[in-house]
Amino acid sequence: MELIKELLSLFLETILDVLPIAAIIFGFQFLVIRKPIPHLKRVLIGLLYVLVGITLFLLGLEQALFPLGRLMAQQLTDPAFIHGAESVVGAFDWRDYFWVYLFAFAIGMSTTIAEPSLIAVAIKAEEVSGGTIGTWGLRIAVALGVAIGIALGTYRIVTGTPLHYYIMVGYVIVIVQTFFAPKLIVPLAYDSGGVTTSTVTVPLVAALGLGLAETVPGRSPLIDGFGLIAFASLFPIISVMAYAQISEFRSKREKKKRRREELRNSDRDRR
Question: Pick from 13, 75, 103, 141: CA 20 to 30 A from residue 242's CA?
């Protein structure tokens, strides 16, 4: 019974959230463009699907993803897990949290690969580029950036170092890369940082950060618990531009090899 009440409450909240968006779209269509919406019945059914889908997703977050993220953080930072059956009193070293970094890396990689918004962007990028940008190549590059970013973010929480140091250094790297990366990939790289912070990645990452800050001694959930999303947004920009730079370097090297082979063959023919 409580689950049904919670479901209805979330459904009403979702309607209130989506209503302004629908009002703007329909308002512009009828008042500014002054044309009827084609296939109106199909659009309204699709809107109902959106409302139901968002409601079920929010319920799933509260029932599963948020508790699961916090539970994993608590279990991985439990002194009994870190040092085995022996209970150790005193401060832990950052190296004691190896499994936390590994879990953060793995969860960042897997959730980003499964991110629907990233899949959509990768497919469109491949279509527009004529196959130059591969769907899986882009997805793996972005996922690798998110994984490294979240792992580094968990290290920051464990050590308690200020967030702005990492962010400032990261954006300096982005600015430098922007001058040297292929110009066609730069806008896509910047957009890649946004599509990663979506439906699948954010709940688990946010829960992991808050759970970690609650369980690591001397950390504040308010000060140290937030910031992982910033890492998840920043590092994909770096990884995608690095992926493009490496691809361009390899392409140039292959061209040089071909030219050398052609020159050698031409010299042999002359002889």
Answer: 103
